[in-house]
Sequence to fold (779 residues):
Amino acid sequence: IAEQGNGHRLVIGIDDAHLLDELSVTLLHQLTLTRTACVVLTVRTGEPAPDPVVTLWKNGLADRLELAQLPRVEMDRLVTAVLGGVVDSRTIERLWRATRGNVLFLRELVEGGCETGALRVRGDVWRWEGRMEPTPRLREIVRAQLGGLGSDERTALELLATDEPLGLGRVASLINPEVVAVLERRGLVTVVNSGWRAEVWLAHPIYATVVRDQLPEANACRLRRRLANTHLPWKRQDDLLRAGLLLLDSDQPGAHASLLADAAVHANALLDHDNAARMAQAAIDGSDGRDGMRAHLALLEAVRWQGQPDHAEQVAAAAAPFATSAEDRSHLAVVRALNLFFGLGQVAKAEAMLHKAAADAADNEMCRHTSAVHGVLAFFAGRPQQAAESGAEILASEGVSAEATMWASSATAAGLAARGRITEALSAVEGGWAALSRCTIEPEMALCRQLLAHAELSALLLAGRVHDAVARATKLHEWCMAQPQWAGDALAAAHVGWSALAAGRPRTAIRWLSEAVAGLGQLDPGGFGQLCIALLAQTHAQLGDGAAARRLLDGGGVGHHCAVFEPEWLLAEAWQAAAEDRICQATDRALRAASVAAGMGERAVEAQALHTVVRLGRATQVAGRLRQLAGQVEGPLVAAYSTHAQAAAANAGEPLDEVAAEFEVMGARLLATDAAAHAAAAHLRAGDRRRAAASTARAASLARACEEIRTPALEQLAPRPLTSREGEVASLVVQGMKNQAIAERLVLSVRTVEAHLANAYAKLGISSRAELARALRTD
Fold:
């Protein structure tokens, strides 16, 4: 072995050294002891290693390194780097749950997903579709770790693989509790004591898949029935759902139709629409008619959220004969109307259905409930004032149920936010979240959850509370990832992207909005696809990529029946035109967006559109109207819009500097960048080169912080190339020379050197010698 090094010391790598035979281990020990070679060994955690291998690190002949599992953030970074693109956050979440940062398991899953096509690119985003199956090699590794088990130990693992976690007391009723201790010592299970009860989990999620695959189906059915009985009679929602899923996959699911119908209703409320659809269909197949309405209504809601509007309409028709009570007819009308509106784009028919349902309501509470849902549709249809007013009227009534409050709060909050009544909107949001927490089985809670989140983010952003919006969007997304996979994942990503754009992080926004657009292209039961495409197109355009923005806007496949988002679409067209230097067309589209928003009573959105006109350099056209809106829309943002417009129209550099600082304090760095650029231009027109240089430097610094944003305001400040003499002076400054020394070197006066340096500062958008080196490298 030494001779093979040809005079150089060899490096020998041995994977899974705990599997070596005795003779090989002895040779290995000798190589290390004599330093014949540098040896790198791996020993799998939990596996017994031969004594000579252990001696290596005990006697100091080798360094022992514990390779810990990756933290969540590092796993995300690794997967993104390996795949070379944006990875859907739900895919990251699923990989995390499946591997818990184990790099061996992670590599096998990712490679296997790519090979089978389960992990694929859709809309420039990597997404995992379908079940997450271990590769054959990973199964072999896990089977080796599970080897040498006794019969009772194998049974315990099968119970946990079928229905984990199990309470320690429940396990004791099923098998000998000593078995758990044996498995825990082997590192195959963990016992987690939450303070009120101890639960037994498999040590790794992958174990469950491998154990289930080895379990004969007859035995699996027997185990499912046995475990389901331990959850019955159910007292907690979790017990109902677990019993339902176990019985669903047993050999006689139809015998439990009533329980499956109940479980499907609760699964919808918990956003588990895929399992809700399975349980509801099984309940329908096994029902004698007693649970027909509950099962059909649960199935209707579930398939709507699975993105199957045509199938949902068929289910609604099949459910009609079972709607024998006024309450059943009201619930059926609500879910069917939502499917007609969002799924099939039949706005008038959906609203007419809800209007009739309210008129036919058997009591005031049912009428309020249906009218509140109608208010939600009024918002999406472009009537935010009606949504806010109808919702507020319901909330002011006596004895309103939590269900009606949930819907009315959603409509009110969304409508008030668009109209710029921020404090009232956020109050309605708070009431809506509280009502939602009190509801357990109300149909379409998922839509209320989406609209409340949207209303809250809209209110915060339209009020200029950008930092709060970023924090709230992050928290909502984290909550979403803790739930089952559902259609709301995409909107949660959109909210993170929207707030990132407002905060001046457009490239970050593209990452999240791309995920949102890809997700909503598959499932959009809440009608937010148009808004997300518009926001992504705006972001690309403000980075100077007009072609990408045009592809999004021309892509087709998105409905425009949610008229409330039309102003954002028009603003996307405006920014796309601006990216192609068609400023006149861009201004026209922005003015059109403002007009459409004004027609719908969306004052805050109108102000945003008019401020876009200001950012495009046409402040004189909109300054008057923005002054009016500043007195009608709550919060500092629209007031700053107005100040920006007045100062830009008057070419007043100092007020523009001040409003740029205001935007920056709010966290709205994109707006601060354009205001600073306008200030620089105003100072130049006034002949104040010193202030122009300072404002230019500020605009350039903000643009860099904004991930190299490119807007018309910044393009006007694009630095002219340095003259040869300016470049020469700047180069000597970077080398550390003083003005006097430079003057002597170049045979110039000190004043001439200072003039050349000032010109270089102005062209490069800087204001100090300290910034010059970086500016020259960038230039």
